[in-house]
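Standup notes
- DV: blocked on the single-chain target, sequence here:
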Amino acid sequence: MKRSALSLALAFTILTVSAQDKNFHIFLCFGQSNMEGNARIESVDSVGISDRFLNLSAVDFSDKSRQKGKWYKAVPPLCRENTGLTPVDYFGRTLLEYLPQDHKVGVVHVAIGGISIDGFMEDRIDEYRKTAPDWMVPMLQSYDNHPYKRLVEMAKIAKKKGVISGILLHQGETNTGDPEWCRNVKKVYDNLLKDLDLKAQDVPLLAGEVVAADRGGICASMNKIIDTLDRVIPTAHTVFSDGITQNFDFLHFNAAGYRELGKRYAAEMLKIWGIPYTPEQDYHPSSPESPLVNVSSGSVTFNLKAPNAESVLLSSQFINEPVPMEKGRDGLWTLTIKPEKRDIYPYNFIVDGVQISDPLNREIFPNETFKASLVEIPAMAFGPDAEPFLYETQDVPHGKMSFCTYKSPVLGTWRPFVAYTPPGYETSGKHYPVFYLISGTTDTEETWFRVGRLNTILDNLIAKGKAEPMIVVMPYGNMGSTPMPSSMAATKMYTSFTEELTEGIMPYVEKEFRTINDREHRAIAGFSRGGGQSLFSALSRPELFSWLASYSAYLTPEMMDSCFPQYGKDPSLLNDRFNLVWYGVGNEDFLYPSVVENRKYLDSKGIHHEDMTTAGGHTWMNARTYLIETLQKFFK
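- DV (later): unblocked, structure below
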């Protein structure tokens, strides 16, 4: 039964304190915005409140519904007019579930959003008030510019009715990183004991953590300081915030979070009293979330539950080298980091030297060798008015993806490819141009879809009138071996792929889809290995293609001279046939020198081509950039 008799420890505490009602347990509550209450009060929060849960109003309400110094049923808001739900609401409710029916709980609540601990220190409040921001001035004035004095004033009134049994603190965000915070809290605590004639052993201090690191809390580093409060105040107890849900700003808890935090405050107080806390449904998050994107700051929190690991690193293409993650309570490793640019990034964890994808993230990077997940930084992370990125799903007509299987005439096996058909394809009856988009080394046929976001990008470009409606075919480019592109041995693989494309993939596509089957309506491009395959296939069969692009790929001068000497002798064979020959590469790409060499070769032979050089390396962030650029050129 929850409403069991009080333990002997609690009974002793009550009997040694002189009060009008020994069964009326009063708690002083102070702090900043999370104590003040930042979440919207929902309907569930204003019903089912016991008449035994009371709030001594510390201010007058303008509608005269509450007057300073008088007791009211603890219906939110508890702090001031127009404040929100606080952990105190569910602290009191939860205590009463475990206390006998003849016991009551009262709270005295003084809090100001954004206030430093200095604002509760008698020797500093006057100076602090002089530098307070404009928005804080009315809050301070509501407490006659001295919140500590108001707290003591109300506490003295409360003592006439019951026993002050504890102090609840939630403050620290404004003092994040302050090494003096614990000592300053002790000064406030000691002053309260002195001014109210209280004994520390009778009045424990319960201090709540700020939004935790596993929830991406922007002040989470402060928890390390809060957790050491008991070193300077022996009767201090920390209320942990791990897993408690936060608001969009990653600074405040949301309504569900305040409810849970209040229960944790209550659980700690019950533990102090020696009363078993056995909730009907204890709070256990099904699992931490990962990744958590803070849309207000653009930072990302990564979490991994690995209690037995000795080392966990985050590896991603938005950082130069793997970054150590920090192990928290219950074996949860976490790291919050901010990518410099907006994009979709692959990442993975390195657990004791072993690379793994994020088990909490359903967005995977399809690849034959490394195991990675994807994190997307949306446009709204960089301001509410930021225009959505082309890779973000928008309210436009959407095309469809088809997963297809055909029999390879080259390898003698069944092979997959993925095809995109534009919006309206099913009902239009029209025939469409075809773009063959080839995967990179170790990528699968799904990579251009899941990582490159071809379908979303093309949907948005078509809707904007910046790209022609087209069918896009994304084959699986692995032909069994991948020699280095700098080696002449690569010609065998390139030749096999050309046969695969022209004898297996294209006949199947032109049979199963409504395609325009002439060179003016065929384009081909690819990333990395796929770029080399695209270059070789188009140069081998110029009668089939008129649009050609290479993303971070090249053919060597030796291969050009050996396999395609006709173009060096007569560049018109290319210039007159191809509407576009296009090269894109990053200036930090390990293939950059070879791509530049390929461009110079074409220049020396008089072969026309367009170039795009971007910052960055051999990444899918660059691949998407090149895709967006060329989609707007094809079939125009």
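- Follow-up: The domain at 292-382 is CATH 2.60.40.10 (Immunoglobulin-like).
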